[in-house]
Amino acid sequence: MVLNWKIGGPLLGVVFFLAVLLVKPIGVSTQFVVLDGILWNTQVPGTVAQGADGAWTSSNAYLAKYADDIADPVNYSFIFVAAMMGGALLSSIVFGRIPLRERFNPDLWRANFSLGWIGRWIIAFIGGALVLFGARLAGGCTSGHMMSGMMQTAVSGYIFAFGAFLTAFPTARILLKKEA
Amino acid sequence: MEIFLAIAIGGLFGVMLERIGATDPNWIGRMLNLTNIHLMKTILVAIGTASILMFGGQMLGLVEVGHMSVKAINVGVLLGGAILGIGWAIAGYCPGTGVCAAATGRLDAWFFVAGGLLGAGAYALTYPFWKQIGFLNGEKWTLGAIPGADYPAALPNLPFSGDVLGIGIGIAFIIVAIILPRRLAGQKAPAGEGVAEPAE
Question: Where along chain B do its domains lie?
Answer without folding.
Answer: 2-179
